[in-house]
Specification:
By secondary structure, the chain is of the alpha+beta class. 15% of the residues lie in helices and 15% in strands. The protein has one domain. A two-stranded antiparallel ribbon has the order 1-2. Strand 1 and strand 2 form a beta hairpin. It contains 1 helix and 2 strands; from the N terminus they run H-E-E. The radius of gyration is 12 Å and the shape is elongated. Zinc ion (ZN) binds next to loops.
Length: 68
């Protein structure tokens, strides 16, 4: 049990459609972030990215982010 208020949880969708994130990563939102948009902004500061895959948006942690 944590003292953190329940907000949106944004977790990694894994390196591709058939593989799960090896680290089961999720963004740790800052105290003021409640909505998914705010949480994703926190994630971007930590190196998370959002991309389109097969017509839907997926969230990728720094580990699963495709190499440039
Ligand atoms: Zn990941």
């Amino acid at each position: 049990m944590t003292a953190r208020p329940i907000g949106a949880e944004v977790s990694c969708d894994g390196p591709d459609a058939s593989r799960r994130c090896p680290e089961s990563a999720a963004i740790s939102p800052s105290l003021n972030s409640v909505t998914a948009t705010e949480v994703r902004a926190d994630g971007r500061a930590d190196g998370w990215t959002r991309r389109r895959r097969n017509g839907r948006l997926v969230d990728l942690c720094p580990t699963c982010k495709p190499a440039p």
